[in-house]
Specification:
Blueprint lengths: L1 E7 L5 H11 L13 E9 L2 E9 L4 E8 L2 H18 L1 H7 L33 E2 L1 H11 L3 E6 L5 E6 L5 E5 L2
Parallel strand pairs: 1-2, 5-6
Antiparallel strand pairs: 2-3, 3-4, 6-7, 7-8
Helix pairs in contact: 1-2
Amino acid sequence: MEIIIHGDKLKVTDAMKEYIEEKLEKLNKYLENSENVRATVIVKVKNHEQRVEITIPLKAFILRSEESKDDFYAAIDKTIDKLERQIRKNKTRIMSKQGKANRDFDVAAFTEDDSEEEKKILKRKKVEVKPMNEEEAILQMELLGHQFYMYKDSDTNQVAVVYKRTDGNYGIIESE
């Protein structure tokens, strides 16, 4: 696995790099052709918290996790554990889609501002929505750990959003 590590307002030391690489090796057992996989790790500092973001784009899915902790090493551990849980939790779905995983999907990752001040639009993204069915969209949403996911329905060719309901089920919003 190729690992790209960036520090945002922080110098990433050799010890930090070695720790990240050692922990990411844990995920190789889940990845086929792990030597062709590129993981991007961004380490940020905000006040006293260390924030770690890990994004791993695969052929058909994107794995992503983000965690904040007071301790850098605890943040890495939590982020890697979260990624491993996502893979294990969705193993059955991943295996059932493996035959259909011949194409790459582009995913929008929206972040929320945690402050309690007046809410305003802080970031705007343009994303390419690619055709997929509802099952693939749900799987991609779960792999990203998001509450919603926008996609183009392969049957109707219309833009749709799948979201996780408070009762644990899923809902779909379709465009007209």
